Each structure stands twice: as C-alpha cells, then as structure tokens.
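Q: How would the structure tokens look for this protein?
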Amino acid sequence: MEHTTKGTVTHVPPGQGKSYWTPGGHMATFKATSEDTGGAYTITEDTFPPQVGPPPHIHHTQEETFYVLEGEMEFVTDGVTTRTAGGSLVRIPRGVLRDYRNVGSELARVLVLYAPGGFEGFFEEVGELVTGHSAPRRSARCGEAGCGRREVRLRDTTSLAGIVGSHTQYEKTGVLINSNWRIRLH
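A: Here is the predicted structure in token form.
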C-alpha cells in the first residue's frame, strides 16, 4: 500500500515513504511532510549505519525531536554529550549547535520530528533519492570534496533557510562554510 492522505488522515505503511540518502551517509524516509501537516511539522524515519551522522550544525528555524527506535545514538548539544538507546527521546531547540551519530555497531533507527515543517526541501536539494535498496554514492556519503570536508551544491537558497535562518548574506557569495560543510549555490 502506498502513502495516502485523505482529509486530515495520513497513512504511511511500514517500509513506505520517499527516501533520500543524506550527505552525511544516513537514509531519511519521509513519513509526514509539511504538506501533509499544513506546515506544522515534518517527520522522518532515519536509518544510520554504525558510526554515521551529519556534521555539527544549527537549525535556526526548526527544532528537532529525536525518538530512538533502536540502536545507540550519541547527541552533542552545546558541548554536552548524551548517549541514548532505543526508547529515548531527545529534543533540541532551534538555534542550538548539534552533532549526532550512531555510536553502536548495528544500524540505528530514529524518528525525527522537525517543527515547524518544511525541512524536506533541504533533503530534496542535497540528498540522493533512494531507489530500491540502493547504497549511497560516495558523493552522498561524504560530499564531493571527500569525507574530511563535505561540499554540497544547491540550485537555490530556499532549502538553506532551515539551516542558516535568514540566508540573504549567502545569496551574494553563494557559499556557506563551517568546519565540516561547504555549500555552494549554482
């Protein structure tokens, strides 16, 4: 059965939903999009291979709530480390530096709620659409510049809003840089 939305009810069966390989190397599957929720939130089911997670980053427009379904995740927020297992919940407010990864030896599965919704645009821009049970290409796992430093090319600045808040300053240079990412607009 496919993802269906009728009126205010959305049903996405197990194993269904549009999935993207992220530049950090994990898979994000959309279970509820901003369109489904009237912009209130987005929910993804993320699957992290061992020792995988995105680089440190800040969301200026969304808070993230993580519910660990299985596996061992580690979250570092503003320098504080929290190690979690299945059944744990971690909420990170907007504007807080975050770094997280699967620290276990098995896959980790995590439900992630982004509020308000709309963060799916970022995954659509920088991710690689999953087809079947494909593995991420090197560019999706590590970025075009290699695993030590990641570079992502975006078509426009729309999807940057969830990461950097007001992105006017980046429209002129076309480049957003922190210690792990280089995002170039084209």
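DSSP finds four helices and 15 strands in the chain.

The two ends are 38 Å apart (CA to CA).

Upvote if useful.
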